[in-house]
């Protein structure tokens, strides 16, 4: 018969493990609930602060707020800002995603281990560069370099709406901003995509190669389908960063308040975040409420983008690394 001492010690250990498990469960639940509470708190704050501008009649608001002097209503003011924000972020995503996927595939399946490690480290370092540095680089270095390219596009492909209009001599236009934003979101998309590609089951890759597939065919049949949802999630993370970027856009773009697809012409578009940063210091209380109303619109756009991305990932999780 087993002595009572060891039996009591095992019971005490099991009781201690159950207590630790219960404490960890409550801690994890509290952390998850805290995120939801913070999200709701931000939404409530934005609604309360923006309510004076939202609830005021349009004619009275336009009369009292200098920001709206060229607008007929709050919606007329917010609309072009939403358009410029979404257009810049979409262009940045179009530029960044193919490059990020290529880098992720190279570092995960083509490059030697030492080179892949070094390249991955360099790419990750791009995420640590402050946005104001990207803004300075875009305004002082990139703009003079791309100006002849934009002029060539306008001259030879000007029939396409995006490249029509009068080319800015300073190149401080939306297309330059989109390139800078693409560089800024590149590390996020690359890092997440690389980790997803590395999670592809080894047996799937070896089976494709054993059937006679080339390296590219193996990637196309095994790696890319497995990582599709992860790449979508990475792209949405990058899109969220691009939508909310402030300093780089503020320092590069020559702003305007138009619904314009002329991305080579100055004074056409502006983003919500950059407009808030530019107008906030001189705004009166009602003007601040108006700017916060535009911030509420940006919050709603970001929320919709993330919900849509989550729906896409959930729909494809059975065929990817998301499950």
Automatic annotation (TrEMBL):
Q: Which residues form a coiled coil?
A: none
- Which keywords are on file for this protein? Cell membrane, Membrane, Phosphate transport, Transmembrane, Transmembrane helix, Transport
Q: Which residue intervals define the domain ABC transmembrane type-1 in the entry?
A: 82-309
Indicate how the chain sits in the lipid bilayer: Multi-pass membrane protein
Q: What is its main location?
A: membrane
Listed Pfam families: BPD_transp_1
Q: Where's it found, cell-wise?
A: Cell membrane
Q: Which SUPFAM superfamilies match?
A: MetI-like
CDD domains reported in the protein's UniProt record: TM_PBP2
Read off the InterPro entries from this record. MetI-like, MetI-like_sf, Phosphate_PstC, Phosphate_Transport_Permease
* Residue ranges of the TM segments: 24-48, 81-106, 118-151, 171-192, 230-253, 291-313
In the record, the note on similarity to other proteins reads: Belongs to the binding-protein-dependent transport system permease family. CysTW subfamily.
Briefly, what is this protein's role? Part of the binding-protein-dependent transport system for phosphate; probably responsible for the translocation of the substrate across the membrane.
Protein's name according to its UniProt entry: Phosphate transport system permease protein
Q: Give the species.
A: Cellulomonas edaphi
User: What does the record give as the organism's lineage?
Assistant: Bacteria, Bacillati, Actinomycetota, Actinomycetes, Micrococcales
Tell me the name of the encoding gene. Answer: pstC
């Amino acid at each position: 018969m087993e002595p009572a001492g060891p039996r009591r010690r095992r019971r005490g250990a099991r009781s201690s493990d159950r207590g630790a498990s219960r404490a960890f469960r409550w801690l994890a639940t509290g952390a998850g609930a805290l995120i939801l509470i913070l999200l709701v708190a931000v939404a409530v704050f934005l609604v309360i602060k923006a309510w004076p501008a939202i609830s005021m009649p349009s004619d009275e608001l336009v009369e009292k707020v200098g920001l709206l002097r060229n607008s007929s209503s709050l919606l007329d003011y917010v609309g072009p800002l939403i358009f410029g924000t979404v257009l810049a972020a979409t262009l940045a995503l179009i530029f960044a995603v193919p490059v990020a996927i290529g880098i992720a595939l190279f570092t995960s399946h083509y490059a030697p281990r030492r080179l892949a490690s070094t390249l991955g480290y360099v790419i990750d370092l791009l995420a640590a560069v402050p946005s104001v540095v990207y803004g300075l680089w875009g305004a002082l270095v990139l703009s003079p370099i791309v100006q002849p390219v934009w002029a060539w596009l306008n001259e030879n492909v000007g029939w396409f709406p995006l490249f029509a209009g009068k080319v800015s001599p300073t190149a401080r236009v939306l297309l330059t901003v989109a390139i800078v934003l693409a560089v800024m979101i590149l590390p996020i998309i690359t890092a997440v995509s690389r980790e997803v590609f590395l999670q592809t089951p080894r047996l799937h890759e070896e089976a494709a190669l054993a059937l006679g597939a080339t390296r590219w065919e193996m990637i196309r049949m095994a790696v890319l389908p497995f990582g599709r949802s992860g790449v979508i999630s990475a792209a949405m993370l990058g899109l969220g960063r691009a939508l909310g970027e402030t300093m780089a856009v503020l320092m590069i773009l020559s702003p305007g308040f138009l619904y314009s697809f002329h991305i080579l012409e100055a004074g056409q578009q502006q983003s919500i975040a950059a407009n808030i940063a530019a107008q906030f210091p001189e705004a009166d209380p009602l003007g601040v409420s108006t700017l916060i109303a535009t911030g509420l619109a940006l919050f709603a756009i970001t929320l919709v983008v993330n919900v849509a991305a989550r729906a896409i990932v959930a729909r494809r999780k059975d065929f990817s690394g998301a499950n």
